[in-house]
Amino acid sequence: MRFIGNKEQLLERIYQAVLATGVTKGHFCDFFSGTSNVGRFFKEKGFKITSSDLLYFSYVLQKAYISNNNQPTFKKLLQNIKTADNSLFSSPLESVRNYLNNLRGINGFIYKNYTEEGTKNQQHKRKYFTAENGKRIDAIRTKIEEWKQKKLINENEYFVLLASLIESVPFYANISGVYAAFLKQYDPRALKRFEIKPIKFYPGKKEHTVYNGDSMNLINGLNVDILYIDPPYNNRQYAPNYHLLETIAKYDAPKIKGTTGLREYANQKSDFCNKDTAIIALDKIAKTAKYKYLILSYNSEGIMPEKDIMFVLKKYGEVTLQNIDYPRFKSNSNGDSKHKKTIQEQLYILRG
Ligand SMILES: C[S@@+](CC[C@H](N)C(=O)[O-])C[C@H]1O[C@@H](n2cnc3c(N)ncnc32)[C@H](O)[C@@H]1O
């Protein structure tokens, strides 16, 4: 998924940094999980994972990929719904996916608030999805919730379906990168017929734990081998930039406002989006949690200056720093440092 700060391209580098510490197995903590890519990677490498994020849609991904160890069978559901011949599909998920992709659209919350047709009589006209795609998202999301209410799907199956929906939305959203704005004209991507896509499974045997909340509240009593932290780098909070994914994940018909139909996010603000509170929060994590190694991913243009980070981390042990050239995330939301095409991703490695 396109996501600011997504570490997909850096996973091997992070892995090399972990291996260099001598830790090859044990408990890995990913406390700013976002797409959950880092947790997934280390789950596949055999680590026990604990992860967390302020965003609920991130929690959905963590539930589907990290704490879920099994391919869903949808046994009960498939006995209760009429699907096309199951033998046509490679897996039960494929069969359910096909059913969802063929639902008739409904005029639900997404259609009514985030499509041009649905908002035509409102003060703010919004063009995040075509009317047809808005209705399809509503129909799929409503059906998943109905199946959960009727106990036709178990918790893992519920989160796998929600994750498939969430992962699919960015392929049809009429945005450039983030949801803080929509495009005036339809991008060709937005005109395609909405379908939910399959997701990958991460089978496993270990018990993994995932949270939706402020990781600062979880550090007391934490005792892990690798504490990996990847907090925001700048003043931009994540919640308003991904508000629509949050609303589709929660589907809680929130009060929304303004041109972009933003939901309230007062309880999803991060200390790391303010340079004064960020350094205090970093100090608190390094001081309070117990770890063999703390690895901080940061960025050469982040609001916490390198010397301040070094000063804080060095209070708790020996620190090394790796710099990695990395392509800049492109979005239309602001124009910081347009000129440089790369930035430096940094890995601070603190031996606890
Ligand atoms: C740089 S992104 C992480 C990207 C992630 N490593 C990935 O590969 O997708 C920062 C994440 O930290 C989350 N976040 C910020 N402050 C947080 C906090 N105090 N507790 C939990 N999550 C937080 C944001 O919601 C965002 O998802």
TrEMBL record:
Q: Which reaction does it catalyse?
A: a 2'-deoxyadenosine in DNA + S-adenosyl-L-methionine = an N(6)-methyl-2'-deoxyadenosine in DNA + S-adenosyl-L-homocysteine + H(+)
What keywords sit in the KW lines?
Answer: Methyltransferase, S-adenosyl-L-methionine, Transferase
Keyword match Transferase: yes
EC no.? 2.1.1.72
An example of a GO molecular function for this protein is: site-specific DNA-methyltransferase (adenine-specific) activity
Q: Which InterPro entries match?
A: DNA_methylase_N6_adenine_CS, MeTrfase_D12, SAM-dependent_MTases_sf
**Single Gene Ontology BP annotation:** methylation
Name recorded for this polypeptide: site-specific DNA-methyltransferase (adenine-specific)
